[in-house]
Amino acid sequence: MSNAAVFTSEFSRVFRFFLQELKPRGKWLTPFNVISIPIIIVGLVILYFRFVYGLGSVTNLNQEFPWGLWIGFDVVTGVAFAGGSYVVTFVVYVMRNDKYHSIVRVTVLNGLMAYVFYAGALVLDLGRPWHIVNPIIGNSFGYNSVLFLVSWHFLLYMIAMFVEFSPVIAEWAKLEKVRKFLSALTLGAVIFGITLSILHQSGLGALFLMAKPKIHPLWYSEFIPILFFVSSIYAGLAMIIFEGTISHKVFKDLIGDGNHKRNEEIVLGLAKGAAITMFVYYFFQALLFVHEQRWNLIHDFWGYWYLVEIIGFVLIPCCMFAYAVRNRNLGLIKVASVMALLGIILNRLNVSVIAFRWYAADHYYPSWQEIVVTLMVISVEIWVLRWIITRMPVLSKH
Amino acid sequence: MEFYTYVNIFETKGLEYLLLLSFLVLFILLVRYLSGYGKKGPDAGDKTSKTGH
Q1: pLDDT tens-digit profile of A296-329?
Q2: Chain A residues within 8 A (CB-CB) of chain B?
């Protein structure tokens, strides 16, 4: 048989296999489906109005508050949550720590999904979304813009993560030669991805450097890029713990007993990393507080709000992580991870939305449509994630 | 001619240096504290199993 005939028959086999896999499996009437399907339908209707009648028809955004929930939560917070991907691949492939090898696939998948959906949600927020390709195709590159860096990094990092995950797809499609080839690319993609991640996690913080007069001085600092980068490390670790907890309940059939036991040690290791990173982040904040002489700023509402964020959602979960690791208390680690994630949401929203133009008479509040679309993005991501995990060898080799 | 009657640690870098030194000390203590994890031994197994893992 000629090479062309072999290729054609292999292609048609993979295509038939893919169509077969598209068919739904399991029960339809699950609590998640019952809640998420109406949200997705309503969200799609809202998006129709957004693209036909513009941003103003469904959002509370205006010239004074051009960035709202879709940027503050979906993009800025979502990307921080995806930080676990570069942290774990660094530990496994660069530091050669095999202890975390079993969670690499699911972590990379989570990161890839987060970038595709949360960073992808950027399209919804652009007034002229068709201009999103401009930084890529060279139409007004904007070399001096931080957004130029961030947009290129998002694109390249999504490609790098896809390359990292592609051996799983090849394994699923039973393409052994392709899998071997793609596996050989993994280390290069990981190193490339880590470099990009460090730069664009801090780049997202650098976006706010130009808004100095608009951000409350308790949240503005010339070190925002470093704070965003350091906090993305523990945000990613906390997210892995949180998602792992849910995955072990929802996909318990796909995880062997051996993996359950190994998971305890993995969670303890991740929590240890989170405690150390949060400690470093807390001291960065303390040092900035003293360096920029913010003493006289903490006696009003914004000061108390700042202390809630830093003490309530950084220092306390940091201590909880440390205590829980020392005493092997997995329940406390899960609570601490949720608190750490809430702290990240609070911090990113404070910088981009809540403490942004804090002095203005009229404040921005997200409209119900913005909230529904955000929930829709999360729901669709979980649908796709579930489809991939139940079909591909992500949690364990099939 | 300027005179300095006292040293205000809030206006100088004094407090920042103190903070940094305390960070270094506390960081070592934290790492040592965390490195001792698992020392509780077999008793810890009971606590972890209660969490559903």
Answers
A1: 899 999 999 999 999 999 999 999 999 999 999 9
A2: 248-249, 260, 263-264, 267-268, 272, 275-276, 279-280, 283, 286-287, 290-291, 293, 295, 322, 325-331, 334
Q: Residue A151: exposed, middle, or buried by beta-carbon count in 10 A (0-12, 13-18, 19+)?
A: buried
CA distance A114 to A377: 10
Instruction: List, in order, residues 6 or more apart from A35 with CB less than 8 Å away.
Output: A379
Mean pLDDT on A359-384: 92
CATH class of A39-391: mainly alpha
Does residue A80 contact residue A201 with C-beta atoms inside 8 Å? yes
The whole-number pLDDT of residue B40 equals 55
Tell me the residues of B at the A interface, defined by beta carbons under 8 Å apart. 10, 15-16, 19-20, 23, 26-27, 30-31, 33-34, 36-38, 40, 44, 47-48, 50-53
Question: Residue B7: is its pLDDT beyond 70?
Answer: no
For residue A86, pLDDT over 90 is answered with: yes
Nearest chain A Cα distance for residue B14, angstroms? 10
Q: Say if residues A284 and A222 touch (Cβ distance below 8 Å).
A: no
Determine the distance in angstroms separating the CA of B47 from the nearest CA of chain A, rounded to an integer. Answer: 6
pLDDT tens-place string over residues A196-232: 999 889 999 998 998 889 999 999 999 999 999 999 9
Do A318 and A279 form a contact (C-beta atoms < 8 A)? yes
Question: Is A382 within 8 Å of A114 (Cβ atoms)?
Answer: no
- Structure token pair of residue A186: 């993994």
Q: What sign results for the dihedral spanned by CA atoms A32, A47, A390, A248?
A: negative
Cα within 13 Å of Cα(A19), Cβ side: 5
User: What is the four-CA torsion angle of A59, A62, A68, A69, rounded to 10 degrees?
Assistant: -10
3-state secondary structure of A356: strand
| Domain ranges, ordered by start, for chain A | 39-391
**What is the spatial distance between Cα A84 and Cα A241, in angstroms, rounded to a whole number?**
10
Residue among B15, B23, B48 minimizing CB distance to A283: B23
Main-chain dihedrals φ then ψ at residue A146, nearest 5 degrees: -65, -35
Query: What's the pLDDT tens digit per position in B12-34?
Result: 678 888 889 999 999 999 999 99
Q: Which of B26, B37, B53 minimises the CB distance to A330?
A: B53
B52 confidence band (pLDDT: 50, 70, 90): very low
With beta carbons less than 8 A apart as the criterion, state whether A346 and A309 touch.
Answer: yes
Nearest residue in chain A measured CA to CA from B32: A326
